[in-house]
Amino acid sequence: MRYHPFHHLGLKILALLLAALLWLTVAGEHVVERSLRVPLEFRNIPEVLEIVGNAPDTVDVRLRGSSMVLSRLQPGEIVALIDLSGARAGQRLFHIRNDEVRAPFGIEVAQVLPATVPLELEKSARRWVPVVPAVDGEPAAGYVIGHFTAEPATVEIVGPDSRVRQISEATTETVSVKDARTRVQDVVTIGVVDSSVRLAQPQTANVTVEIRPAPYTHAMPDVPVRWRNLGAGLLAQLSPPLVHVTVRGSKAVEDLRGDSIQAFVDLAGLGSGRYNLRVQVDPSDVFGVVAIDPAVVTVTIK
C-alpha cells in the first residue's frame, strides 16, 4: 500500500498543534527543586532473614521538575525502594540510588538523604509457645479466680532468632472477671508482647476462667442491726436486734470483728406500723455474705 502524506491531514495538523501547545506550556514553566519526605519500602526480603530493630521508614529526597508538576504530587506517588535480594545476616549497609526512587513522569530525583541506610538482619526462627490468657479484675466478694485455660493451648511464633528465643509465652486480649460469680468465657485475639515477633498465623483463643467460692468462711454472731432512712419524728424498734452473719473470702476474713459488718434495714418511705424487713449488709471487697440468720427482722415504727 502506498503512503499518502496528506491522508488524515486534519488529524495530523491537530496533533502537531497539541504537541506545540504542550511544549509551550512546559517550556514556559520554571524548573524548580523541592525536598520531600517519602516512604521507604523494602523489597525481596529473603524468607530466611528478618529485619531487627527500628528500621527507617522514610527518607528525604530532592526532586527536580516544573513547579506545576511538583505542586500536584499526591501522597504515595514518590516511594524509595531498597532491594534486599541476596542480603546476608549481620549489620549491613544498603545504598539508595536515585533511579531506585519511584517517581511520576516529568520528575527527576536529584538526591536521596540519607543515601545509605544501615540495617541489622538476622536469621528467621520459629517456635511453639504456650498461650497464657490475660485476666483482669476481681470476682465478686467471696469468690476467687480458679483454673483458666486457652484453646488453642499453644501457638507458633516467627521472628528474629534472638528475639524468638526470649519469648516464653504468647498472651491474649484482656478477659474481664470483674464481679463474676460463675465461669467466664470469651473469644479473644492472641498476640506477642515483642513487636518484632509475630504469630505464624493470626489466631483467636477461646478462654475459660473458672470462678469458685473463696476457700474460707467465718461466722460472726451477734451482729447489731441498725436502721436507715427513718422518717423525722418517728421511732423504730427491731426484733431481734442482733443477727448471725456468715461471710466468705480469703483467710483475712477470719480476723473480722462484729463491727466490721454493717447490717441494716432500710426504712425509707415507711410510716407508723409493723413491718417484716429483709436484713442487708453493705458490700465489701474483702468478703461476700453467705448467710444472715434470721434473714428478716420485725420493725415497729411509732
Description:
The protein has 302 residues and is mostly beta strands. Helix content is 9%, strand content 51%. The strands form 6 sheets. It has a 5-stranded mixed beta sheet. Strands 2, 5, 8, 11 and 15 form a 5-stranded antiparallel beta sheet that branches. A 5-stranded mixed beta sheet has the order 22-20-17-19-23, with no helix packed on it.
Q: Termini distance?
A: 124 Å
Question: Could you name the CATH topology of the largest domain?
Answer: RNA Polymerase Alpha Subunit, Chain A, domain 2
Principal-axes shape call:
elongated
Class of secondary structure makeup: mainly beta
Report the radius of gyration as a whole number of Å: 38 Å
User: Roughly what percent helix?
Assistant: under 10%
SSE run: HEEEHEEEEEEEEHEEEEEEEEEEEEE
Spatial order of the strands forming the largest sheet: 6-4-1-3-7
Tally of structural domains: 3
Question: If you average the pLDDT, what whole number results?
Answer: 87
